[in-house]
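Troubleshooting entry. The earlier prediction with FE2/S2 (inorganic) cluster gave an output that would not parse, so I re-checked the input for stray whitespace and re-submitted. Clean input:
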Amino acid sequence: MLSKEDNQLITDTNSGTPMGELFRRFWLPVALSQELPGPDSIPLRLRIMSEDLVAFRDSDGRVGLVDKYCPHRGASLFFGRNEEGGLRCIYHGWKFDVTGNCIDVPNAPEGETYKNKVKIKSYPVVEAGDLIWAYMGPKDRQPPFPEFEWLNLPRSHRYVTKFQLECNWLQATEGDFDPSHARFLHSTMDNNQSNPGNALNQGAGAGGRVGVNQVNLAAPIDPSERYPRAVGNRRFKETDPTSASNMRLEDIDAAFFSIAASELPDGRKQAVAGLRWHMPMFCPPGVARPGHFSANMRVPVDNERLMFFRLRWSLNPMTDEDLQEYKLGGYTHPEMVPGTWRTKANVHNDYEIDRLAQKHFSYSGIKTFPLQDIAMMEDQWGPLADRRNEHLTSMDYQIIYLRRRLLRTAKALAQGVEPDEPWMSESYRYHTAQVVLDSGTLEDAIEQAKLKAKEPVVPSDLKVEAPKISA
Ligand code: FES
Ligand SMILES: [Fe+2]
C-alpha cells in the first residue's frame, strides 16, 4: 500500500508536480507519425500530460507542437489553416511557425512589429520510429534522445499503434510488473493447452522477452482439489521461477532488470537478465509473435487517462501475416472504434464479457489479452486507484520496486536533485539477455548476462539514419 501523500505524488503528472516534472525530463512519445501524414495536413488536437496542445506538419514537413490556444483571444488553433509555413488562427488570422514564433498579425495596423513580441508555447519535437516525440521540460535540461535500437530500423521492421485508456498511467503500467496475473486472467479452462499465448505472455512477463524464462503451465489440474478450476496448476509456490525468492531486481543505469540464475542438470550455469523497465515508463513485456520484440509506452493524457503506444519490432521485415495479425487479429492490438483511438470493447460495454465463455472456456470471458488487462486496469477503485486500500503480497515485489524507484527519484527532483537517467541515453538500448556457462559460478553467469544485455542486437547494416532533434 501507499500513503495518501505518496499515492498522490506518484500518480499526479500535472505540470509543477514532482512526478509531472520527472516525466518532463524525458523525451516522450505524443502521437503517431501517421496522424500528420504530409506537409500542411490537418492539425492534430492533443491532450498530453494534462496540457492541451496542437501538433501540425508545416509546408516543409517539419512538425510543431504548440499551445492549443491562440494568444490573441484564445481561439482553438485546431481549427487553424495549415498553410505556407505555419498554422494560421481562423478567428483573426494570426499565424505561428513550428517553433511557436508569431509570424503574422494581419488584423491590426501595428501587426508588423507587434508580431515580434508574441510567442506561443511550443515544445521541441523529434520524429523517430514512426512516432512523434516531444520534450516538455525546462530548456536547459533537454537531454539527448534515448537510443532505443528499434528507432534505427527500417519502417518495414516495426508496427506501432496507440489506444487510449481511461485510467491513471501508473495503474496500467503496474500491470507489466505483475507476474502472477497471467496464469489467471489470461488463461483458459483446459489447462492452458489450447492457448499458446499464455506461455508467451508468461515468458514476456517474467523475462521481458518472448522465449526467455517461459513458465510451464502444463501441470495437471489436481482432481482432489475442491475447486480445481481456481487452483490446480495455477497456484504459485516458492519454487515458481517468477516468485520473489527466485528473482532479484537490480537497477542498471536508466533501467531495472530481473535477474535469475540456475544450475542446469548437466552442471552448467544459466542466467537471465530480463529487462523490465526504463525510466520513466518504457516497459518491454507483452505478447509478440516469435522473433518479435515488444515495447509498451504509456504516456499520461491527464491524471485519469493515458495514451498507450504499443510497439512490435523485429530484426526481419514484418510479413503480411504479421501485419494482418497486428492490425486485425485483436490478439495483441485490440479492435478500435473506427475513426477513434478507443477500444471497441470498453468500460461502457463491460468489455463485451461473454459469461458462457467464462464458464466453459476462458478464465476471464473477455476476448483478447489486451482487453483482459484493460478491463482489470481501468477500474481499480476507479480510474485513479487509492493504494491505501491495497493488500500486496510477495508476488507484487516488482510493483513495489518500481514505485520505490519512481518515488525516490521524483522526491529527489522536488528537492532540486536532477535525475541522471535522461542523460543515460545509451542505456535505452539495453535488452533481455540469457547466457549458459560451462564453468564458473552462478554469479559469474549473472555478470555475463548483464554484460550481454548491454550489447546491441540490431546489426549495423540494418540501421537507417538516427533521429534528429528538429526544433
Ligand atoms: S483569437 Fe486567434 S487570431 Fe484572434
Ligand atoms: Fe496481462
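This one parsed fine. The domain at 33-141 is CATH 2.102.10.10 (Rieske Iron-sulfur Protein).
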